[in-house]
Amino acid sequence: MKKLRTKGTVAAAIVASAAMLLSTFAIAPANAADGTCAASDQDTFNTCITSGASNITVNKTIKFNAGKALIDLGLAFGGETDLADSYGTPVEYTLDHSVTITGEGSSAILRNVIFTVPQNQTLTLAGTIVLDDINLTGTNLLGLLGLQGLLNLVGGVKGIPTAINVAGGTLNLEDTAHVAAGAKNALNQQRAIAVTAGQSIVNLNSSGEYKRSEQAGLDIQVLPGLSDSNLIVKALNDLLGALTIKRTAAYPTVWGRDAAVYSEPGVTDATINITNGIYSNQKDKEVLGKTYLNGAVSSSATVNITGGNNVKISSVKIGNGVDKNHNGSNTTGTLNLDNPKAQLDQVVENDTDAQAASTDSWALELRSSATANITAGSINDTLHTNSPKVIESEAGSKINILAGGTEAGDVKIANQSYWIREAQKSGAKFAAKVNANASVAGEDTSSYELWSSGAAKTDNTLAQLAALVKAETAGSTPAAAKLSQSTYSSENGLSAAYLEDVNADGRAVYGRHVITASGSPFEAVKNSTAGTVTLYGLPWVGKYSTDGDAPTQTSKLFAGWYTSQSAFEKEDALQASTSDERHHNWNPSDETFDGTYGQTVVVSTDKYTGSLYPHFVSDETIKVTGVQVAPGTKTGRYNLRFISGVDSYNFKSVNFHVEYAGRTLGDITSTGIYDYVVAGNANKLFPKNPYVGYEGYEQLPEQGDARYVTTGVINNMPGGVTLDITPSWTTLDGVTVSGSTYQVTLQKDGTIA
C-alpha cells in the first residue's frame, strides 16, 4: 500500500500540470464534397462546428480538455478507465446554427463536452454517436487513492451538470445515438438532457445500448453494526475500488445521474417526444447531501410517448420540483402515453444499477396539477415485488385512461387491463362492455356510467380522449352529463335506455368510470388523497333516432318525443283547457314539415334537427281497466268493449291484440281518443281528466297517468272463452309501445269473471 500511495502522489502532481497543457498544433478537418466536416480530435471538431458546418462526422473518441492520460504516463493501475483520465473544465458549445453530428463506428464518442441549443437552432445526434459525460470528476489525490467518500467531506465532486441544454431550440436523437452524463458521487444535480427554456422541442427516436469499460472495486456488503451508507464503509469500498477490477457497464439510450431527460419546473411550454429507446437514471438509495429525487424523465412540460417502437423508462415524474421528502415547488405538466409497446417500469434493460432502485422511486409520479393521458402502454413495478410502487399522485393531479384498441391489453397498469369498450347503439338503447376487474379495493363500482357530451368522433385515440375530457370542462355546450337511465352490472356491463337532450346532428355517448378509492396501484402521496383517475370508453357518435325502437324506463312506458320537458307541459296544459281541434289532430302532410307540430311535439325524428325530450308515463296508464258487454246479433254471442287509457291526445293510434288459446284472433286499432265514454246512463272518465267534478260523470278506477279514454270493440264473441288482451299505442314518430297482457273471461251468461 505504501508504494501505491507514492505513485498516487506523483500521479496527482503530474496530472495537475498536464491538465493545464494545450495542444500546440491542430489537424485541419476533412471536408467532403457535400459539405460534411470530419472531426478526429478536439481541434478539428472545434473547427468544424465554429466554421458553420451543418454536418459533422465522428469516427473515433474525442476527449475535450483532457490532460495527459495516466496510462500514457505509465502511472495507471488497472488499464484505461475513468480514473486514468484527467479532465479540465468541460467545453461548451452554444449553437449559432443547426448541426447534425453523426457517429461512424463503435468508437464515435464525445467526452467532456456540453451543447446548448438556443431558439431557432437544431442539434441532431445520429448514427452511432455517443455523448459520454460519465464520471468526469477529474483526477486528484483522494480520487487516485479511491477515497471518494472522504472527498465528499472536503467539498464533494462537481461532475458535469448536463450534457445537452435545450434552451428554446430543437434536439433530435436518431439511429443509435446515446447520451449519458453524471458522476457517481456528485452532490449537484446532473442530467443528460435538460430543457431550460420554453418552446423547446426534444425528439428522442434513438435505440440500443451503450457499453463502456469502467473500473469496479471490491464492495464490502456487510460489516457488523455498520450500514452501507456509513462513511467508513464508503471510504473502504472506495479504497478497494482503487484495485480497479474492470467491467463492461451497460447504459440505456439516455442516462443521467439524476435524470435522463429533465425540464425545469418553470418550463411548461416545451415538448418532449419519445418514440424509441430506453431511459434511466441512477437509482442509488442515498447520496450524501442529496435532497432531490427525480424520475428518469422528469418534466413540468408536455411529454409524449407515442408510436409503435419499444420504449422503456425506469420512472416518469410529471410536475417535478419536489424533493425526496415531498417538499418544494409543485408544478404542472402533461404525460401523453400512447404506445402499446411502451413500458414504465423500475427495471429496464441495459441499466447497470437497475437493482439499486431508490425506495421512493415510482414508475409514474404525478405532482400538483399534473395530468397523465393514457391510451396505450404498460405501467408496472417489477423491482419492488412485495410492495410495488406503480403510480403515486397528489390530489390535484388527473389520470385519464382510454383504451382504444380491440385488444384487452392496450392499457395495462400493474398487469391489469383497464378498459371500457366502445358504446354500441341498438334501436333507442345504448350499451358498453366493462372490464370489472380493473378496480381498486373498496371503490364504488356504481360509478360505471354512460355519459353524453358534444365531443366529436376521431380515429386517433389520444385525440379522442382529449376531446372527451375537454367536452366535460365547465361551460362546454352542450354540457356533458350522465344519462339518467344509465345502469351497470358486472355481468352485463353498462346500459342506458335513451338519450336525453340529444342533438340529432351528433352527440357522443360513452362509458365512464371514476376510480374514487386510493390504493394499489393508484397510491396517494404521503397516504393522503390521490389524484382523480377517470376511465373512458370510445364513444358512439351519430344522428340519434329510435330506429323504430322505444326507449325504456323501469315501470314506465315511452309516450312520445317532445322538443323539451317544458314544451310537453305547455302542450299538456293546452289540451286540458281547450277544445281546439289543432291540439287533438296530428296528421301534418306538408313535405317541408320540420318534424314538429306546434313547436312542441316531435312527429318525425328523421326530419327534426333539435333536441329530444323523451316523455314517459306509468306503465299502469295503458292497462285494460274494464270490459263492457252488450248483446250481440246472435243468441249466445256478445259484443265486448275494452277500455284503456292514455295521458294525452298525442298518439297516432291505440291497438288491442286479442288471442284465444294461444292463437291470434285479431287486432283492434283505434284512432279515437276521448274525454269520457258512455256506459249505460253514465259518462265515465278517469280521475285525472280535466272534466272531473262536473255533474253527471262517474270516475273509472285510477290507473297510472291516464287522463283520456281509448277503446276497442270486438263483436259477436261466444260466451265461455278466456281472452288475452295486450294493449299498445303508437307514438307520433311511429314507435309502438306495448303494455302488459290482461286476461278477460267471458262467461256463457255474458258476465265477466
From TrEMBL:
Keyword Signal part of the UniProt annotation: yes
UniProt keywords, alphabetically: Signal
Signal sequence coordinates: 1-32
Domain of life where this protein originates: Bacteria
Protein's name in the database: Cell surface protein
